[in-house]
Amino acid sequence: MAEEKYELITRRLQEVLGGDLIKGVLAEGRTPKCYWGTAPTGRPHIGYFVPLTKIADFLRADVEVTILLADVHAFLDNLKAPLELVAHRTQYYKKILLAVFTSLGIPTSKLHFVEGSSYQLTKEYNLDNYKLCAIVTEHDAKKAGAEVVKQVESPLLSGLLYPGLQALDEQYLDCDFQFGGVDQRKIFTFAELYLPRLGYKKRAHLMNPMVPGLGGGKMSSSDPDSKIDFLDAPEVVRRKIKKAFCEEGNVDENGVLSFVEAVLIPISELRIERAKGLTGADADEGAGATDQTPFSAEGAPEGTVFSIVRKEEHGGSLHYSSIDGLKEDFKAKKVHPQDLKTAVANAIIRLLDPIRQTFEKDEEWQKVEKLAYPDPNAKPEKKKKVKVYHPPPPGKGKNAKPAQDGAAAEPASVAATGEGAHSTAEAAKQQEPSS
User: Region (Disordered): which ranges (predicted)?
Assistant: First the structure.
């Protein structure tokens, strides 16, 4: 039983550090605890399907999963998310992650969401941070964050704090292992080195492969041409996939083919296993998912995880039970890039449709989205000048009464005081008859 759970926890991963620690927890009969964190900066993209799908395996193995919305980290990462936007983006991330989990059939009731600021601003956490600052060199801090923190010519001190805080999260979230992308490896080894120096236990670290960008390189939230957002419309998806780099016969540098391997096939396998009742400890898996079928065409052989639909005059449809067969055919140029792109675009649109529908029905999410990612091209609203009424001076204006007998009109509200009153009295005396 423990071996089966360990296999579920570690399958499809690129690397595992400290696997024996997880085996020890399982051997003791304890429930393993893990956390996966994300900093709410740019809009989440479809590369997130890789870790979010993997979380289904953790739940099947009865792992307690914490989702960290790392709002403090988002602010520290070279001001990618200005402080005034972090709170809105944190809410946006939570909304979209819940929608993605639901669309994948992963029960959100078993997930524990935590905002980093809920404990990272405490006295105890900050004291541990100061202790780390006293023993970590600038070289080690910079090296640890090199693949994650945005690198600039003159780095900010905040970027050097980032790896230490992520290491401390393992202790304060009380996890047995941390899960993340392989780009986090240097931060993970940093944590393994420094947490024991504070008197805390060493944790295991699990890493999923990274999905290449559509043009090659890393899929990044800051590069709109390298990624597809969860809320992209079908026509946007097709346009981006059409522009993606997908050289005929090239299987090594091919973001489209890599997406099939890292996202589409694992989701297909998950759905096939679910149909067979192979959900392990997670009996609620699949509840709420509107699409439970693998990415195979109608009439495909049993076990097909990905199909490319083609007309008979073009050779007919192709069906694959693994990524190896698809790679072999693509390398041999039996699969044309355009056919692969069309099949991938159709699959992505299927994946995103329930997420977009959830967004369109959720007015609160729509408001949060506008606050989290305001349109940079939007012109500021012009403030209308408010007319303020200024009453005319007494005796003036269209309602003023004309003066009588040629004398100037005396303001009724003004009393004769000071020098004016004295002059009036003197004039009256001079007009009196002398005695």
Answer: 279-300, 370-435
